[in-house]
């Protein structure tokens, strides 16, 4: 039996809608209807892309029906901006995957060294200045702690700097998924938070990540 909520899946920086297809397929097998929302992560900022999601819904969705939202990395920040600025939509539950809710250290380094690589996704998004999470939004956060990925050299360098400044820091304090620190995924007001042994990109095809995201959409908490 199909669920009543449409699940909107939102990809991250430098990605395209097809990257969310594996998770969409797993959600569909559980009876969910899905839509893989695409946006221009480099050319347009978070406000424009949030507005485009609203416009897509106005054309394609009945506002009397609730929607769920699942976003990877930058896509999770778009979710936050969207729910903060378009309250007319009925939001069921939201899940973010490796989203740097507190801002992105790796994004900061890249912005200073080669801003064209992050484009307009830095300001009001990766810089940590996304709108606060509105009250009443059920948000589950999935973080990864398998340190492999394109951002690993940057974060390894940053970890060495942090250890010199504070010798009491542990590996747990400095854990990351190869792009985003676990601490960067934390946010005041979230409903639940879970850390899984996955990389930043690997979480998109990981069965346990998909299972936990589905469980949160159904129950409002992660499965322990």
Structural class: alpha/beta
Radius of gyration: 17 Å
The CA-CA distance between the termini, in Å, is: 26 Å
The number of strands is: 6
Q: With helices defined by DSSP (H or I, 4 residues minimum), what is the helix count? A: 7
Average of pLDDT: 96
Helix content: 25-40%
- The neighbouring-strand order within the major sheet is 2-1-3-4-5-6
Strand content: 15-25%
Low-pLDDT runs: none
* Main sheet record: 6 strands, parallel
| Sequence of secondary-structure elements | EHEHEHEHHEHEH
What's the shape? globular
Keywords:
224 residues; alpha/beta; 34% helix
Overview of the molecule:
The protein is an alpha/beta fold and 224 residues long. The protein is 34% helix and 16% strand. It has seven helices and six strands, in the order E-H-E-H-E-H-E-H-H-E-H-E-H. It has helices at residues 21-29, 46-60, 74-85, 105-113, 122-126, 152-165, 207-219; strands spanning 6-10, 33-37, 67-72, 91-97, 138-144, 192-196. The chain has a six-stranded parallel sheet with strand order 2-1-3-4-5-6, with helices on both faces. It is globular and about 55 Å long. 41% of the residues are buried.
């Amino acid at each position: 039996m199909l669920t009543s909520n449409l699940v909107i899946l939102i990809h991250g920086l430098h990605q395209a809608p097809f990257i969310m297809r594996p998770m969409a397929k797993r959600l569909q097998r559980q009876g969910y209807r899905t839509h893989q929302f695409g946006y221009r992560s480099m050319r347009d900022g978070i406000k424009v892309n949030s507005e485009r999601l609203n416009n897509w819904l106005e054309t394609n969705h009945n506002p009397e029906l609730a929607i769920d939202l699942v976003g990877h990395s930058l896509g999770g920040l778009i979710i936050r901006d969207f729910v903060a600025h378009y309250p007319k939509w009925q939001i069921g539950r939201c899940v973010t995957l490796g989203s740097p809710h507190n801002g992105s250290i790796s994004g900061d380094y890249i912005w200073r060294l080669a801003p064209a690589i992050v484009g307009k996704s830095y300001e009001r998004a990766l810089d940590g200045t996304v709108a606060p999470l509105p009250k009443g939004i059920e948000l589950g956060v999935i973080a990864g702690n398998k340190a492999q990925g394109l951002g690993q050299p940057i974060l390894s360098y940053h970890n060495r700097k942090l250890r010199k400044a504070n010798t009491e820091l542990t590996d747990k304090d400095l854990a990351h998924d190869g792009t985003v620190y676990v601490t960067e995924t934390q946010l005041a007001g979230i409903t639940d938070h879970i850390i899984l042994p996955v990389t930043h990109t690997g979480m998109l095809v990981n069965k346990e990540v998909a299972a936990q995201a589905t469980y949160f959409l159904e129950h409002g908490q992660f499965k322990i």
